[in-house]
Amino acid sequence: MTLDDIALTLHTGLGAITIARLVEHFGSAEEVYAAGENALVEAGLKRPIAHSVALRETHARAEAEYLYMQQRGIKAVAVGDAHYPRLLAEAADRPHVLYYIGNIEVLSGHTLAVVGTRNSTSYGSIMTDKMVEYLSGRVAGLCIVSGLAFGTDSNAHRAALRYGLPTAAVIPSSLPDIVPSEHTALAKEIIERGGVIVSEFHSGNRTARNSFVSRNRIIAAVSEGTLLVESKASGGSMTTAEFATGYNRTLLALMGRATDPTSAGTNRLIVNRTASAVCSG
């Protein structure tokens, strides 16, 4: 990871897909900056954005970002680096840079996303624990991935810690801040137990509604499979399921009672044969 990698992500008008396309076209962030304005236009950038890139207008901010990281114990990995998550690198909308605290290497082994409603029922909580316990004895090196939110997410992280599995939390805020702040202690334990806290957002980011959607796409993309424990008919976990399907990942869903609103989404995925049914741990 270089300053060029960070600087590339700071240009207004360059989204994740465009950055991925540029890096694939030129070979690296360094080569993007070495290309020159005309070559960048020929590669598909609009002239004003190409001009900004050619002038290296965001490099001063990238230097400030790097200093911010050093002062707070934050590390970063870019596409092409050895420890950039293997599956995430395959996604067309991958973030070019990931910021993290902890052991990023846990995302390069076997990974399962466990997500669901923030208002988990006792049934959902018990089943999350049982399924993580079951998998802990059967999948060597498994990492449980989730979003550190209330309900199912935090249940999944805690179950992983309980049964000796590393766990990765993808958050919708810039590090070292934790969202929600009530889970700061949980985040610290995840790191201390060999897991990782991950974010695509630099320090200048302000958490907004679309930050959670972006977080959900990363959860799905880094994971070999996604398990929905409980979900209403719509919401963040259903968005994660859509991303998982789009990335051609395995999608699993826990069966629930037909009359239970917190299982409306998972049951629909099963009925529509979008997800495979999970009945027990």
Your description of this structure?
The protein is α/β, with parallel strands linked by helices. Helix content is 42%, strand content 14%. The chain is built from twelve helices and nine strands. It has a nine-stranded mixed β-sheet, sandwiched between helices. Helix 9 links the parallel strand 5 (167-170) and strand 6 (196-199). The protein is globular. The model has no long low-confidence stretch (mean pLDDT 95).
Brief descriptors of the model:
281 residues; 42% helix; globular
Which percent bin holds the helix content? 40-55%
Number of discrete helical segments: 12
**Rg from alpha-carbon coordinates:** 19 Å
Mean pLDDT: 95
Q: What is the distance, rounded to the nearest whole angstrom, between the alpha carbons of the first and last residues?
A: 40 Å
Spans of at least 5 consecutive residues whose pLDDT stays below 50 are none
Which oligomeric state applies?
Answer: single chain
The total beta strand count reads: 9
Question: Largest sheet, if any?
Answer: 9 strands, mixed
Task: Tell me the strand percentage band.
Answer: 5-15%
In sequence order, what are the helices and strands, one letter per element? HHHHHHEEEHEHEHEHEHEHE
Tell the overall outline: globular
Largest sheet, order of strands side by side? Answer: 1-2-6-5-4-3-7-8-9
Helix-strand category:
alpha/beta
Give the helix/strand layout.
Elements: H1 3-9, H2 16-26, H3 29-34, H4 37-42, H5 47-54, H6 59-72, E1 75-78, E2 97-102, E3 111-115, H7 122-136, E4 143-146, H8 152-162, E5 167-170, H9 184-192, E6 196-199, H10 209-221, E7 225-228, H11 236-246, E8 250-254, H12 264-271, E9 276-278
Parallel strand pairs: 3-4, 3-7, 4-5, 5-6, 7-8, 8-9
Antiparallel strand pairs: 1-2, 2-6
Helix pairs in contact: 1-6, 7-8, 10-11
